Amino acid sequence: MTERTSQTQPTGGIPERAAGGVLHIDLDALASNWRTLRDHAGGAEAAAVVKANAYGTGIEKAVPALGKAGCRTFFVAHLSEAIRARAVAPDAAIYVLNGLFAGTCPAYAEHDLRPVLGSFEEIEEWAGFCRAQGRKRQAAIHVDTGMNRLGLTVPQGLTLKDRAELKDFETALLMSHFVSAEESDNPLNRRQIEAFEAVRSSLPGIPASLPNSSGIFLRDKPHYDLVRPGYALYGGNPTPDRDNPMRPVIGLEGRIVQLRWVEADDTVGYNGRWLALEKRRIATISVGYADGYPRSGSARGRSGDELLAGMAIVAGRRCSFAGNVSMDLITVDVTDVPEAQVQRGDTVTLIGGDLTIDEVGRRAGTIGYEILTNLGARYARAYRGGEG
Predict the structure, then answer these.
(1) In the chain, which ranges are continuous DSSP H helix?
(2) Binding residue numbers for substrate
(3) Catalytic site residues (predicted)?
(4) What is the distance between the alpha carbons of residues 372 and 349, in angstroms, rounded to a whole number?
């Protein structure tokens, strides 16, 4: 972990000394990442995706920090998240990605929020609400160009120009979403750009948005009017085939609650899935899958095996997990760390330094996105920076 400074701001109800883990969040790095992405966006506006509690970093902290950096547009997944974002960003444009739930139009109006409309039913409901109010409120329209998840189909999108309902509200944004932008050579990227361009051309004058974090770095530079970075803001690598241009934003430390020696042929953890081939020293860390560290990061096999399993940095050395990740605890093989350098009460790094969020995801057989968004409520949270 990086050295703590006077800028660190402990928050929440859990003091560090009482917490099994400490989540460090660098708001200055978050703001710096937004500026880097803005500078790569070819003059397009850079928004910020702050869904899933700002990818685990906290909406109430992340949104003001991004706002101070210059961000004026935010995207969330749910209406409840949008209301939280509005409370700390009174003048921002805030879009709700997961569509317009039936009967929720009044809440959007009350908090001046913008739904992302992805079906004719949603368009009709929003248009009807705006007509009844006598006010043309803003919304985005989502056209699906290949994800097959949310949004109008491309053929439906091409008929939008003939829909009378579009006269009842202001279409502030036409958007789609990349399927595989992190795979820079995937031909689907070009097909999506072409499909999006066809719909965009049929609706002249409406601002357009396609790129996510990785899409900003595609050679085709499909930046349009607004880019919507998410994962890269929080330190994830938007260019997996190249060095990460982002600064790390989060770090996670876990506290050692006990150390023990296990003998040769002893097993460690539930179901005895990890076997010590010789005497080994085990550190038990007060973090588990209830804290959002995935059970799939468990180490199974024998001591000394080359395993793609969870890892901790202990006194500057990488140490593999030993056995299954349990609900509240992780066991780590610290035999190679001098005994004097690792003691009860010490903290170990579970994310941070050269143990990046992307590597932690790979080692758990998942992606860094899942690690970030699952970071739990039992950590003490220490924020650094973010001041005006």
Answers:
(1) 27-39, 51-55, 59-69, 79-88, 105-110, 120-133, 154-158, 187-202, 357-363, 368-373
(2) 149, 327
(3) 51, 270
(4) 15
Q: Active site includes 231?
A: no
Catalytic residue of the set 51, 55, 108, 383? 51
Q: C-alpha 245: how far from its chain's center?
A: 16
Per-residue confidence of the chain (388 residues) as pLDDT tens digits?
A: 333 333 444 455 688 888 999 999 999 999 999 999 999 999 999 999 999 999 999 999 999 999 999 999 999 999 999 999 999 999 999 999 999 999 999 999 999 999 999 999 999 999 999 999 999 999 999 999 999 999 999 999 999 999 999 999 999 999 999 999 999 999 999 999 999 999 999 999 999 999 999 999 999 999 999 999 999 999 999 999 999 999 999 999 999 999 999 999 999 999 999 999 999 999 999 999 999 999 999 998 878 776 789 999 999 999 999 999 999 999 999 999 999 999 999 999 999 999 999 999 999 999 999 999 999 889 999 999 986 4
Residue positions forming the annotated binding site: 149, 327
Per the structure block, which two tokens stand in for 365?
A: 């057989």
3-class secondary structure per residue, 213-267: CHHHHCCCCCCCCEECCCHHHHCCCCCCCCCCCCCCCEEEEEEEEEEEEECCCCE
Active site residue 293: no
In this structure, which amino acid lies at residue 149? R
| Options 61, 270, 279, 289, the catalytic residue | 270
Distance of CA 82 to the CA centre of its chain: 16
